[in-house]
Design goal:
With about 375 residues, the protein is of the alpha/beta class. It is built from eleven helices and 19 strands. Helix 5 crosses helix 6 and helix 10 packs across helix 11.
Length: about 375
């Protein structure tokens, strides 16, 4: 069976307040073209279909359009919800639209309910493990503790138990939205730390013939059978040098895997540029950047007046401005201090800064419990 693995569309997302409506539509059209030209037999979307729980109407229009196009082509679509999606909203009418070959898996109760598709070699069971917020699903799975490893471990036990009841030779594909240990991250991904640990080991997915992962925005291979497709567009300047792609996966009759990376179109190059303002405004060496989305870092010893406005006269798609000189604003220096740190680490650092005393182990644990309680409550609201 030929499977197209994609994820993290984030429909409705903006790039530094710039709409990506046209760029996201161009990707969806590219996806359809790929389905036709590569004779794809199933499309797997591993979560974060939308950028937020209540997406804008134009994002919903994109979603409805791609579902209709794939249904018209007769190509099955298996899709799970991610941590940005509202499971209940995404899963509206899920049972009804299965008749059109669209299989939405958005709840913990759906993990062991596969979409069973067929090719000339027999059945392929697609299991959808949506983003499972540990604090919300621990009781459902009777997991020992509210951690990603614990709840995904039980979910995969259910998958393996169901697969064992299927006819001999049934192949399996698991879609999951999680952070797997050893994978590379980007700045545009939302922190999903729970129990102090955001990641799960790849061994959790033992027994699956192919694991189509979502959540991380870089296209990457964890193993031959476990891969992230990444996002189809760059959603932060940390992804400027990440080639965006989908995986074209051939699942053979004997469960062999052959995967090819298919690059996505680049609607507008994303670049980072550094220099003195006057040089950037006048040097012909920078002509190639005039039509790029830009993050500009100025090295002037003093901050030039109306720097962004002047830059945008030559570089109309300049979106972000930074300054490398040490005389930075309080806001910028704070951003640099917290970059790459977890919410727990940031809160502990703030506590230490205010009190001058390092938190005790008990205080650290109490703060972690509080942060997880807040995140669980927020996830519960978004799930509605």
């Amino acid at each position: 069976m030929r499977i197209l693995h994609t994820s993290d569309w984030h429909l409705g997302r903006q790039l530094h307040r710039v709409s990506l409506f046209k760029e996201q539509r161009a990707f969806l059209e590219h996806l359809l073209k790929t389905v036709r030209e590569e004779r794809v037999e199933a499309v797997a979307v591993a979560g974060d279909v939308f950028d937020r729980a209540i997406p804008p109407l134009d994002a919903i229009d994109h979603f409805n359009w791609i579902l209709g196009q794939l249904a018209d082509l007769g190509v099955p679509l298996v899709m799970i919800s991610g941590n940005h999606d509202s499971p209940r909203r995404l899963g509206v009418n899920a049972r009804l639209i299965e008749r059109a070959g669209i299989y939405l898996r958005t709840g913990a109760e759906d993990c062991a309910r596969p979409a069973v598709l067929h090719d000339e070699h027999g059945p392929v069971a697609f299991y959808g493990l949506p983003y499972l917020e540990p604090g919300l699903v621990q009781a459902h799975f009777a997991a020992q503790k509210p951690s990603h490893h614990a709840v995904l471990g039980v979910a995969m036990e259910q998958v393996r138990a169901d697969l064992a009841t299927r006819p001999a030779g049934t192949r399996s594909v698991v879609l999951a939205h999680a952070f797997v240990t050893g994978a590379d991250t980007s700045d545009s991904e939302r922190d999903i730390t729970a129990g102090g640990v955001p990641s799960v080991p790849a061994s959790v997915f033992a027994g699956a013939d192919y694991v189509a992962l979502g959540h991380l925005h870089r296209c990457q291979k964890i193993s031959e059978r476990i891969r992230y497709s990444g996002s189809p567009l760059a959603y932060s300047f940390s992804e400027a040098d990440h080639p965006k792609a989908m995986w074209l996966v051939d699942l053979g009759p004997d469960s062999t895997i052959t995967a090819h990376k298919l690059l996505c179109p680049v609607p507008r190059p994303m670049r980072q540029m550094t220099g003195i303002l006057q040089d950037l405004l006048t040097s012909p060496a920078h002509t190639e950047y005039e039509e790029c989305w830009l993050h500009v870092t100025l090295t002037d010893p003093d901050r030039p007046h109306m720097a962004m406005e002047r830059l945008q006269q030559r570089f109309p798609h300049a979106l972000k401005l930074s300054f490398s000189h040490e005389r930075r604003t309080m806001d910028e220096s704070y951003r640099s201090r917290v970059q790459g740190r977890t919410d727990h680490e940031i809160a502990l650092g703030f506590l230490h800064h205010v009190t001058g005393v390092a938190a005790t182990r008990a205080e650290q644990d109490l703060l972690q419990e509080g942060l997880e309680s807040v995140r669980t409550q927020a996830a519960a609201r978004e799930a509605i």
